Amino acid sequence: MFSDRSTQGLDDELDFSITKGLTVAFVYKEHQVILNLATFSSREQIWVDDEKVVDAKVFALRSEHVLSVGDEEMILSIAMERFMTKIMIRASVAGEIVYETDAIARSNPKSLSWKMVLGFAVAGAAVGYLTASWLV
Predict the structure, then answer these.
(1) pTM of the model
(2) What is the CB-side half-sphere exposure of residue 84 using CA atoms within 13 A?
């Protein structure tokens, strides 16, 4: 199996921003595949060779899309395996994985520890409580 990397000879890029979401781009047999996962709207968009082929709202933790890439059928799957700490993106052709990456680990080399996440949650709850108390 793969260890959080693209496969032989594939060039890939990953970009993340709060406003634009998570974007993953890779090349498979001279065809460019771009996936964008929106941050707030649950929208998944996929382009193959600059043509948008998928534009869907997905509210599940796992999704799968069948794409025509050249003369082959590619299955692109997106799976949140650990809530907000591991999002696996896999592309397979004829049952063989041709691309795999953990998008969260790649977009944030120093991934958030559970203590930091808990600290942000407690701080957010405290600010929300104080704001609500002040307004009432």
Answers:
(1) 0.67
(2) 8
Identify the helix (H) or strand (E) that includes residue 68: strand 62-69
Give strand pairing partners of 36: 23, 45
pLDDT in tens, 92-124: 999 999 999 887 776 654 444 555 566 667 777
CA angle in degrees (0–180, nearest 5) for 111-115-84 = 45
| Cβ count within 10 A of residue 9 | 8
Q: Dihedral angle at the C-alpha atoms of 88, 50, 8, 56, nearest 10 degrees?
A: 20
Tokens encoding 104: 């969260």
**Which residue, among 35, 7, 25, 34, has the nearest Cα to 93 in the 3D structure?**
7
Residue type, 14: L
